[in-house]
């Protein structure tokens, strides 16, 4: 058995919950999708309709919404995130913008540059709190650039979001939470309005509750 977080929306706020489910060991996509199916079955029992947000998703929209596939201004979102990190002893490492998402995430400087202090993107500095705000912001911007109205309407057919690789004991940011936030905003406003970083932070404080 495994226990993972999922993120859900009631149309007003984003919250998190845990679910226990049968885990299928192995790195093959087929094994990951078995685990996803088991995870989603437990979420459906609770009255939610889940969507996996990752390259392992069985739904094309979920694959497109992966940070390894989404692009922000033509650059893979994962690379934007990793290249924006500011550490005690270095960063941001803007050369990571030219790496593959996997290489950008695994770059050894993330482990050798001291503690993470914040983020810097487009000349704007972001603090570590509110937790996940910077990641959610760049994810939101990438979705605004890449999803059609039809795909956004499809997204609102779901109200729970998972990322089978996310382990909250090892990390804070997850595309599942970000997708839940995007869904919430689109449900409330019927669009994804352009927001300054300051406007996004204010919205984030009122909407993300988990």
Order of helices and strands: EEHEHEEHEHHEEHHEHH
In DSSP terms (H or I, runs of 4 or more residues), the helix count works out at 9
Span between termini:
23 Å
Please summarize the sheet with the most strands. 4 strands, mixed
The total tally of domains equals 1
Give the structural class. alpha+beta
Strand order of the largest sheet: 2-1-9-3
Characterise this structure:
- The protein is α+β, with helices and mostly antiparallel strands and 210 residues long.
- The model has no long low-confidence stretch (mean pLDDT 96).
- It has one domain (2-70, 130-207).
- α6 (133-146) packs across α8 (175-189).
- The protein has a four-stranded mixed beta sheet, with helices on both faces. A three-stranded antiparallel beta sheet has the order 6-7-8.
- The protein is built from nine helices and nine strands.
- 41% of the residues lie in helices and 18% in strands.
């Amino acid at each position: 058995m495994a226990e993972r977080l999922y993120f859900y929306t009631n149309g007003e706020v984003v919250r998190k919950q845990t679910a226990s489910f049968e885990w299928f060991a192995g790195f093959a996509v087929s094994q990951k999708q078995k685990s996803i199916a088991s995870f989603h079955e437990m979420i459906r029992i609770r009255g939610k309709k889940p969507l996996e947000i990752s390259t392992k998703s069985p739904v094309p929209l979920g694959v497109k919404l992966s940070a390894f596939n989404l692009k922000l201004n033509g650059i893979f979102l994962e690379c934007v995130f990793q290249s924006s990190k500011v550490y005690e002893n270095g960063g941001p490492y803007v050369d990571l913008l030219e790496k593959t998402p996997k290489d950008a995430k695994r770059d050894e400087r993330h482990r050798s540059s001291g503690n993470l202090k914040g983020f810097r993107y487009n000349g704007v500095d972001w603090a570590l709190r509110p937790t996940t705000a910077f990641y959610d912001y760049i994810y939101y911007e990438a979705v605004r650039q890449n999803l059609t109205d039809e795909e956004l309407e499809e997204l609102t057919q779901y109200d729970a979001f998972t990322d089978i690789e996310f382990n909250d004991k090892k990390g804070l940011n997850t595309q599942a939470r970000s997708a839940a936030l995007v869904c919430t905003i689109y449900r409330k406003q019927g669009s994804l309005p352009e927001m300054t970083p300051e406007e996004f932070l204010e919205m984030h404080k009122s909407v993300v509750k988990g």
